[in-house]
Amino acid sequence: MMKTLLVAAALLGLCIGCATMKPEAAGSLQIDCNVSEAAVLLDDDLVGRAGELKKQAKSVRPGFYRVEIRHPGYYPYFTEINVAEGGAAAVKAELHPLLD
Predict the structure, then answer these.
(1) Is the pLDDT score of 36 beyond 80?
(2) I need a surface site. Which of 2, 28, 76, 89 has the fewest CB within 10 A?
(3) Which domains are present in the chain?
(4) Average pLDDT over residues 34-47
(5) What percent of the chain has pLDDT over 90?
(6) 3-class secondary structure for the chain?
(7) Average pLDDT of 7-35?
(8) 94 with 71: CB under 8 angstroms?
(9) With contact defined as beta carbons under 8 Å apart, do 70 and 10 qualify?
């Protein structure tokens, strides 16, 4: 009986704790790049093509990110961004062709 009561109290505490937690508001990332087919990576994870992320911003969790934009035949572009909760980040990148 006592064990059941303790388990019930623990579950109730978890439910109340979860109900009062405020969910993080997602932020957004928009890319403006001269090479629309360039790959966009956040912390080494592919998130899309530059042209797609220019038309429609990518929803991202708040936080600090390393952004890389790359395409064969061009020098890669790197930057770092900090996306605030509910905020937006925009990256404007110009890729330069590799020299022969």
Answers:
(1) yes
(2) 2
(3) 24-93 (2.60.40.1120)
(4) 97
(5) 73
(6) CHHHHHHHHHHHHHHHHHHHCCCCCCEEEEEEECCCCCEEEECCEEEEEHHHHHHCCEEECCEEEEEEEECCCECCEEEEEEECCCCEEEEEECCCECCC
(7) 72
(8) no
(9) no
